[in-house]
Amino acid sequence: MKGLYFSDVKSAVKASSKLKAGEVIVTMDGTTVSPAGAMTGGSRDEIEKGAIARKNQISRLKAGLADAIKDKGKSLMNKEAHSHKTK
After folding, report:
1. How far is it, in rounded angstroms, from Cα 41 to Cα 27?
2. How far is CA 4 from each of CA 36, 38, 43, 86, rounded to the nearest angstrom?
3. Of residues 10 and 85, more confidently modeled
4. Model confidence pLDDT, tens digit, residues 43-69
5. Quick one: what percent of the chain has pLDDT higher than 70?
6. Mean pLDDT across the chain, nearest whole number?
7. CA pair distance 65, 7, nearest whole angstrom
8. What is the C-alpha to C-alpha distance for residues 68 and 18, in angstroms, rounded to an integer?
């Protein structure tokens, strides 16, 4: 079995799609990643931190999208109000 070593889970998972059958990635904390992206062992802390970070990023993106939609709506309303004044 051939092994590749990465310092973190995120890099390991990203590289896992390029693995050939029989190859495995091992991170510094002992997590192994298969060619299919399955993870075993290692530190749950690093995996949980990644999941928490993604959840926080999704929340920020949703809030940003809601703000952008609200701003676009205000812009359209202002544009329509201005067009009525100039007629």
Report:
1. 10
2. 15, 15, 18, 68
3. 10
4. 655 556 666 777 878 888 888 888 888
5. 82
6. 77
7. 34
8. 37
Distance CA 45, CA 34 (A): 20
Nearest to 19 by CA among 8, 33, 31, 9: 33
The owner of tokens 């995120």 is 10
pTM: 0.41
Rounded to an integer, what distance in angstroms lies between the CA atom of residue 13 and that of residue 45? 16
Residue reference for tokens 């949703």 = 62
Q: What is the DSSP string of 25-74?
A: EEETTS-EE-TT--EESS-HHHHHHHHHHHHHHHHHHHHHHHHHHHHHHH
